[in-house]
Amino acid sequence: MNVAFRVEHGSRSSQVGVVLFAALLVLLVAAPAWGGRDDLRLLSEIYAYVALASLWNLLAGYAGLVSVGQQAFVGLGGYVLFASTIIGGLHPLVAVPLAGAVAAVVALPTAGLLFRLRGHYFAIGTWVVAEVFRLIASQISTLGGGSGISLPSGIVIAMASTRQWREFLMYWVALALVAVVLGAIVLLLRSRYGLALTAIRDNELAARSNGVDVVSTKLVVYVLTAFGTAMVGALIFLQKLRISPDTAFSINDWTAFVIFITVIGGIGRVEGPIIGTLVFFLLRQTLADLGSLYLLMLGAVAIAVMLVAPKGIWGFFAERFGWQLLPLQRRLRLAADVRTT
Amino acid sequence: MHWVNIIIQGVLIGGLYAMFAAGLALIFGVMRLVNIAHGDLIVLAAYLALMVTDTIGLDPLLAIVIVVPIMAVIGYALQRGLLNRTLGDDLLPPLLVTFGLSIIIQNGLLELFTADSRRLRVGAIEVATFPLFEGVWIGILPLLQFAAAIAVIGALQVLFYRSALGRAFRATADDAAVAQLMGLDNRHIFALAMALSLAVVAIAGVFIAVRTNFDPAIGPTRLIFGFEAVIIGGLGSMWGTLAGGIILGVAQAIGAQIDPGWQLLAGHLAFLAILAVRPEGLFPKVRG
Q1: Size of interface A-B (CB pairs under 8 A)
Q2: Which candidate in A21, A70, A164, B146 could, as Cys together with B15 as Cys, close a disulfide (CB 3.0–4.6 Å)?
Q3: Long-range contacts made by residues B236-239, C-beta under 8 angstroms, separation at least 24?
Q4: For residue range B173-220, what is the model confidence (pLDDT) as tens digits?
């Protein structure tokens, strides 16, 4: 019997969600027209965290590769940008995708080593790799060694004619990058690889027994996230205009915050990191004066969420109301005429 | 002779790394838990030793007698109240909760004690040495610390294989469900394992406090050293952690001789090399 069917990704809520996202994108593209310099800077920072958290979520939430060493690729991206513009004379915006490509190439042998460690030990292994990168970076004296280096003003000035346009340009690049990262993740999850990844997320053993090549799927995700993470890292340090081993490979800035954002927002769902980043920045704008106490509270909140509502804020709403902001579900619809026969 | 000296110093510091590793290996062996806050708990123990010596005026090495039980109680409570709830098939909760714990301890210590680096003074013993042979001098304190490491690991080995508690640990590690059917209370056994792990952490913490400067941020590096020693030595092997610690210590000592900036890097590279050549470690006992 030949059964006619199709797979439906969307739902009523995802139609609303997509319209909301489109409207938001238009609003954000126009931000230079309505926002001040501080607004643009804050928004750029939010984009960077949405992108980092979304990538980490893909890695840990879907592929089950819990890394606490993604700062390795943030820092690597930043350093590739500084090296290729200062030494290689490349245009900074060309250096951003180059940083991604270099990281992807570096990620292959790294994965070869780290994939030998299982589960928990994989996590600490990623941390060792990040430490190795940091120590190597502090040995490179042409890039300032342990004390770091600033981006020469000539390189920055060459990007656009006026300071204002430079800021607009960087803002749009940051927005474009987060849009591309999110778009790529949605496309990946809707593809057959996404089906394999979701299966791995839900039960690795069951996925394997259904013929999913778990190891190579994980490898692809690891390399892709390295690519994306390094591009975000390159852009972050292009905006900061200064890099040093300690800031580039900071576990607090590029991993602890990112993990807390994802856990609080909802791990294993694309919407989670977006919601988490918004919560993170709302809290930060109000509690930033607390300094290290803020980080302490964030850690406590993340632990509480993990214990009480392990699927995070968005997971709670998604399960309770069946919401999804992006068309990612798979529902089998049989053609009506076939069903009756 | 110069190099003999360097290697001996590396071996002695390796004892400290083995103590970091033994606590990690113990809880991993019993409940497959990797405690990311392990290094920060070592630093917490160092600060406890500082408080004990500051308030009571006790000799820092004697402070062990007070710090060990305090850390053991913290370990029991931590496991019973928090970590037991994270155990299960999913890897994510224990990792993220101990990661959160690590950030909390680090920033809590930062609030209480500031970022200033501290040190415990133990007087003349700090610089006391004796000549092993021509040109090679051994420090009393490093030797004491190495002896402590061997004693700790030997005691854990005996406890694991010769005592009723050790039998309960091994039974729970082999099959938690069956162990429970036999009348063991897993939650209690796990909490005891964590208490023991933190007792070892306490000894390591006191030795760190008297040997080097410490500040709230040094925990993660200690976790990494311990972890590297565990993997080099091979999962599940107590004496393997000692071998792993020694290899790490020697690699760092040799690296430091080549270039001071290479000390940590040489240790990490030795670890990565062993991971590449012999991923199961040198003396593996369990798999997974």
Answers
A1: 116
A2: B146
A3: B236/B25, B236/B28, B236/B29, B236/B284, B236/B285, B236/B286, B237/B25, B237/B281, B237/B283, B237/B284, B237/B285, B238/B22, B238/B25, B238/B153, B238/B156, B238/B157, B238/B160, B239/B153, B239/B157, B239/B283
A4: 888 888 888 888 989 999 999 999 999 999 999 999 988 899 999 999
